[in-house]
Amino acid sequence: MPHETMRHEPMSPETRRATTRLDPRSPLVLDTRELGRRPGSMRSISRSVPAPSDLGVAVLGVPEGSELGLDLRLESVVEGVLVSGTVTATVVGECVRCLDPVSRGLVVDLQELYTYPGREPESLRNTGEDLDEDPGALPVLAGDLLDLEPVLRDSVVLALPLKPLCREDCPGLCPECGARLEADPGHGHEQIDPRWAALRDLTD
User: Among 59, 123, 173, 182, which is least packed by CB within 10 angstroms?
Assistant: First the structure.
């Protein structure tokens, strides 16, 4: 998602990460204003949003613009806002054995803590590392807004099989000629010992 980072020096890592500007009109940007930063307050969200681009792996993914179902709970905690729930989607791709189209439903659990600027847990603040450069650092709220897309993307991609199959017992294609083995279960090729190949050529 396009974003712009305001640059003023000097700036701490916490402030730098918190000043990322988000577009509140984006379907994957959520407003936490109703929680009021009161620990224990909660808000439920159920909505359908269009899938972002490149949501998947090389052979399987969620088509851009297709429907994503969000069923989420936003809960205010001391450090920030805890987001948990599920994402439902339809993934499409191709079987890695026979190359037939594959389409199936996907339900993914999602959970992430979005921290208030400067309110990261002590275990993270005491590392002495630049949290802005740490890929394992917790995301930070931009004002009252949070960007769900990076967390959603990670959760969906990690839930996808690297080698999708149309079915578990798919026989695939013949490695010699590419014929569909399902259509011809008895398909095969004569295997000749290369040591006898020259003799066969003489016979022919």
Answer: 123
Residues of the chain with confidence (pLDDT) below 70: 1-20, 119-136, 178, 181-186, 188-204
d(CA 73, CA 42): 7
Amino acid 151 reads V
Tens-digit pLDDT profile for residues 118-168: 766 554 444 444 444 444 578 999 999 999 999 999 999 999 988 899 888
65 φ/ψ sector (left φ>0, alpha ψ -120 to 50, else beta): left
What CA–CA distance (Å, rounded) separates 20 from 142? 6
pLDDT for position 124? 47
pLDDT of residue 203: 59
Q: Is residue 33 within 8 Å of 144, Cβ to Cβ?
A: yes
Contacts of 22 (CB under 8 A, 6+ apart): 1, 3, 29, 142, 145, 146, 147
H-state helical runs in the chain: 13-18, 122-125, 149-159, 194-203
* Cα-based distances in Å from 53 to 23, 28, 49, 56: 17, 13, 13, 9
Q: What is the pTM of this model?
A: 0.69
Q: Give me 204's structure tokens.
A: 């022919």
Distance, in Å, from the CA atom of 58 to the CA atom of 64, rounded to the nearest integer, reads: 14
84, 73 Cβ separation under 8 angstroms: yes
Name 4's Cβ contacts closer than 8 Å, sequence gap at least 6.
20, 21
Cis peptide before 150 (omega within 30 of 0): no
